[in-house]
Fold this sequence. Notes:
Layout: H1 2-14, E1 36-38, H2 41-44, E2 51-56, E3 59-67, E4 72-76, E5 82-86, E6 90-93, H3 99-111, E7 129-132, E8 135-139, E9 147-150, E10 153-156, H4 170-185, E11 193-194, E12 216-217, E13 224-225, H5 229-237, E14 238-239, E15 255-256, H6 280-287, E16 292-294, E17 298-300, E18 327-334, E19 338-342, E20 359-361, E21 370-371, E22 375-377
Parallel strand pairs: 18-21
Antiparallel strand pairs: 1-2, 2-3, 3-6, 4-5, 6-22, 7-8, 9-10, 11-12, 13-22, 14-15, 16-17, 18-19, 19-20
Helix pairs in contact: 3-4
Amino acid sequence: MKKLMILLLSVVILAGCKDPGGSSSSSGSGGGGETATENSGFGSAANLGDTGVLTVGAETVNMHYVQDQNSVTFPTETDDSETQALTTKFFMSETEVTNAVLAGVYQWAYDNGKFSSTVTDPNGLDTTTAKHGDKELLDLDSSACKINYAGGHFTVDNGYDDHPVVCISWYGAIMFCNWLTEMRDGNAANVVYEWVDNGAGSGTPNDGIWQHDETTEDVTKNGYRLPRSYEWEYAARYRSDSTNAALPGTYSNPWYTRGNSASDATTFYNDASGSGGDPGKSANDAVAVYGYFWNGGWQSTGVTELATVKTKQANDLELFDMSGNVWEWCFTPVGDSRRVSRGGSWETGADYLQVGNVYESRPYFEYSDLGLRLCRTK
């Protein structure tokens, strides 16, 4: 039964976001004149948990200082069998990127000539697709995508401003980060990602072809970026003290959630005894929006769609939805054809909530349960 449910889930995931039904015609946020500004919190942050506030148009994004050490080593993998060291200090956004925030950034991109109105161009844009370097960024004609474009304006369906972005490719997430940095600075000096529209081996800028494996990152810059895979795992695992380290055998000094559990959950995703049901399900329900739990067979939680951000409790770094709601793109490549995504989603089973689990997707995939979260180097 478990194998059958996993197969069914895989079919749902791999179906992607293409939907001939199209998007809703209702509209919410969006418009021109978008700006991005930071408060002084980014420069003054000195202690773990300090917060920098990013404002994108009318939207506010809290970013917490989640790694403040010159070097920190923590356990990895679902069985905690490996360790990893981080040497980059960084902020991470409190929530997954919402529709309203992404629509504001893409509106800025349109207003500043980043798109072509001829959809067949490498940077083409129309009501069905937004492209850069000949790669689709956002699947606008999917019913799962609640962002719309028409007549020079990006809008969000009513009631979906605070839902996570979905149907966005890795390419779309990369351009969101670069464009947000340009919005903030007024120039591209601090963008983290370069070589975003070059042909394979051509070395010729702006030839209209973007090969993801040629894209480079410079995390010494303070522009916005995706987390690296292990940065994501560190932030998902972190526990503030022994009081919150309720898992049997949880790593201490500092404390980390075991790899077989959801972020900030108090037990193994499938119960510490391995029998399924509670308390594993209750622990997952407190922190994650997800589709199925194991109780002698895979059973539905009753979740039928993604939720607004901050629906469940935050982890000890005040990060919401690190497990569940939507998968989150990471920059990290896997081989030469895939990129890492983390965290599980509203469509998947509790086993994918495990903070030690690493999933991989092709960078052009645009799923109805795949979004992103922001990072910024200190």
